[in-house]
Amino acid sequence: MKLLITLYDIKNMKSLSHTTDGFIIGNEKFAARLTHSFNTEEINQAIMNASQLNKEIFLQANQMLDDNLLDEFSVFLDSIDTKGITGIIVTDIGSVMRLKTKGLIDKAIYNPETLLTNKYDFNFLKKEGILGAYIAKEITLEDVLEISEHKEIKLFMVGHGHLNMFYSKRQLIHNFMDYQHLNNIYHNKQNMKIIEEQRPEEPYPILEDMAGTHVFRSQVFSSLDYLDTLNSHIDYLVIDTIFKDDLYAKKILELYKHRTYDQKRIEDIKALYKENWDSGFFYKKTVYKTRES
Fold it and tell me: What residues of the chain score a pLDDT lower than 50?
């Protein structure tokens, strides 16, 4: 199992390289929920850095792209050193097919967020020759292991971080500020939270970026306690540091790389970043309730 980390600053790649196997970067025009948006020059520099560090690097392009953006995505890819990229993470089938037309299908990593919940759906695009896919974040550990036993492509999984639980392509914060006749100073800010009146103890991180508006779980999902089980089943475990920083990435990577279960170190991280960890949906089955007649 390889560890991947999202990135805030390419200057920190060398220090993070001691405990990670690769990096995830992207540009906000084609990606959603980035830690930081990198321009073309910075992306190519990061690709070069990764090569020099003998690390893998992945381009995140997980927006739902309309026809115009798909064409711009093609131009964007032409400006990137795609030969140096290990994979390109996309969310819709249109993006997958665009990669195919550009001869990059073997670098495609399909991540439709919540859809890949069984082994049949997970392996569906194998016939197209894609590199891998992300399993859904909302499935149990039992389901994760079941899918992994039958995987025919590389299996990616978010293993640590705030899980996105609501998404709207609308700029909801902007719309609210516009309605109040105020300037929107909150776009792309990573320090905002929604607090419900009934659950004030569970603030939900919220982010508005070019892709829309995103609300995340209040708890940080941690798979640290399950690494011995996951190690032989997952190809790439992703540590998402959104709302944090590269120092947080370094601290978390050290725990995961060395499988350190030092409770004091863990509690120190939680206290420093004012966060709580849980096991996500590993033991929470999704239940659909029908309306009673």
Answer: 293
